[in-house]
Amino acid sequence: MNKELEKMKQNQEYERRKRIAEEKHKEWVQKKREEERRERKRKLSQEMAEKATRELEKMQLQEKADIKYKEWLKKKKAEEAEKKKKEKEKEKEREAELQEKRTRSEKIFKEWLQNARNKPQPALNGYGFPHGKSTGLY
């Protein structure tokens, strides 16, 4: 009877320990799942923060690029305007030079015309040469 009682006690102890082990295992599994869930949540939160940071950096870079492009475009337009202005000035100078050259040419032509009227005409058959040219040997 003692042996049976002892055996029963051992069975009860075994069952109790088994139940406690199962409960501890369930607690451990639940704890582990909770940790994994928190870890996933933390990683997701961290990834979202990193993504937001990257997006912000990307936007800042885009803004910087836009600003630099606008500055470059403004500078280019200013250079183009300066170039056109210089070309117009050169064109005006060329026109002025051309006009001055025409005026000078007209003045010289008029002087020549005036002088040509007053200049005596050469004799057509002078010095015994027919038509003003020598014929034959020298």
Q: What can you tell me about this protein's structure?
A:
By secondary structure, this protein is an all-alpha fold. It has a domain of 85 residues. It is 85% helix and 0% strand. The protein contains 1 helix and no strands. The chain is rod-shaped. The mean pLDDT is 90. This is CCD34 protein.
Number of discrete helical segments: 1
User: What's the rounded overall pLDDT mean?
Assistant: 90
First-last Cα distance: 177 Å
The biggest beta sheet, please? none
Q: From the alpha-carbon coordinates, what is the Rg to the nearest angstrom?
A: 57 Å
Instruction: Report the principal-axis shape.
Output: rod-shaped
**Structural class by secondary-structure content:** mainly alpha
Helix content: over 70%
Proportion of β residues?
A: under 5%
What's the count of strands? 0
One letter per element, helices H and strands E, the order comes to H
Key terms for this structure?
138 residues, rod-shaped
Secondary structure layout:
Layout: H1 2-118
Summarize this, please?
With 138 residues, the protein is mainly alpha-helical. 85% of the residues lie in helices and 0% in strands. The model has no long low-confidence stretch (mean pLDDT 90).
